[in-house]
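$ fold --in a.seq
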Amino acid sequence: MVGTGVTDELVAFRFGYLLLPSSQPVPVPGWHRIPVGRGLLVVHPELGHGSATVAERSVHLLGDPVDLDLATADATTAALEAVRRWHLGGDDAVVRYLAYLGGRWTAVLADGDRTTVVPDCAGTQGTYWQDTPEGTVVGSHVRLVAEVTGAPEDTDMADRLRAAKADGIRGVVYWPGLRTAAVGVLPLLPNHLLRCEPSAAAAPERFYPFVDTALTHDPEVAYARFVDLFTRHVALLCRGRTVSISLTGGCDSGAALAAARVWLREDSLMWTGVDLDRPHAPHRKDAAAARARADAVGARHVVVDLSQQDRSDGYVAAYERTWGPARHFGGFAAAARLQLPRHHVELQSMVAEVGTGFDRRPAGPMDLDAVAAFYADEPLRSDPAVRATLAEMVALMQLEPGSTGELAWQDVVYWELRAGRWSVTRIQENDMAHRVLLPFNQRGLLEALMGPRTPRPDKGAVRRYVAEALPGG
């Protein structure tokens, strides 16, 4: 076993956090406790955090924020800049500053008794919430919030999703709309913040696109901006860390390798997951392409055998406590715990598809049918419970005609539905093996990828960067 001294108890909800009313019990012993207004911020001991205060206003940044303008990946420095902008420019100024931070983080802003929670670009650290008589409980994992509030499992939707998988539905299956694995626990979508006050129900509020959000349409100018932001972002993610890369033959992970290769250490690893008990031809081909790429830059490549997993009682219990029916694919984390160093930081290329037109179907205006088609194929697309919660989500999104500005509504819906509800689960599951950071999780570089007007959105800019920056292309 390759690892550090993280106990099984601390593997549960690893890299997580809770924001509690002061009267609520804390279900996670050993986590750091930080008073925030009338409440309490409870932070997993492995999750970085930085805080800064001016007058009655304080900013708490949980995780690994990256400020490209200040060229820093230090959470305290970013918190100081955030509270400075808040003091000088008010709420809009601090939210706009936070919106363009890279890295992976959650921000908690406290102003007297009012608390505001702001997620990172794609909401990749998880933000879930539920109102209680004592106040609003906010946390990184559905089941962590449910442990505090006593929310029961949503067995109805879990059964519907399980049946769809058993029937062989195409594509990934994940929790739809605003439903989660616990009844009454709600997700905070990307591009939204959550305002919490002692005497009122919490209120999610859209903050992006900003009214003046403008995209760069000239392909050459947009490409140059993407390369600049992407390479600086990756450099800061790598600073002071031993990074390893989840590598395939695709262009997104190839771009991560191209940007990170000058920052790799002698013990950095490139890895590809393959079930060696059932090695499908595409997976073998992907692993071979990844190995060739690693060889081209002089890096070590390994295959993570997904059939060899940590099945110890302690880990299985921690995984079940964390995910339960919210699980998606825990096999990689269980395999990586046995086969990869746990102190490495994984660079993972999810979120790229937000900016590269992964899926702009269907054409035409946004309505419930269009969003349901975005979510899944039949039978889930027409399932009454699925459509009901997607309708709730559409109402919350408030995407009236023209409200997305220069962004296509399809890109915004993908960002908030697919990335905000599915990707975050995959990313957080991998956290149980090692910390995951995301080269594409920065708003400015996604805007640069979205900007050029092409007949169909594609990965042209990312492919070009790989061809130009990675030996062998």
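$ fold --in b.seq
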Amino acid sequence: MGAILTAGALLIAALSYRHQTQDKHRALEEQRKAQASAVVLILHKGTILEGRSAAVVTNGSPLPVYKVELYCRDPEGRPLEDGRPYVRDVFMGEFPAYFDEGIPLYDAYVDFTDQATNRWRRWSDGRLEELPKEAAEPETVS
């Protein structure tokens, strides 16, 4: 009987330890993503300044982000502005990119580096992806 109780106690202790470890891992992951989650990209299609469009990046974090590159695309997935990104070396607050009337702004994404040197991509539909440190521009829009 004592052996069964001991085995039960060991099983409960092992499960409790595993649960605590998973909780700690989840908390660290959320903490790591906190700054990146505060970076938002919103498209204003033909609604700014007499029909102009804009892609607006907002850093809601109290910390700056680095190596910010904003890429905009037309409805066929082709890059606007000859594929050149709008770039900011260091960024806090709001960063708008304006387009003349008639330029078909359809989709956009912004790549940036957080304080911990993690590289991220925020899409205009809200998706957030962690990137390799030297990520290149994707060939097609998903």
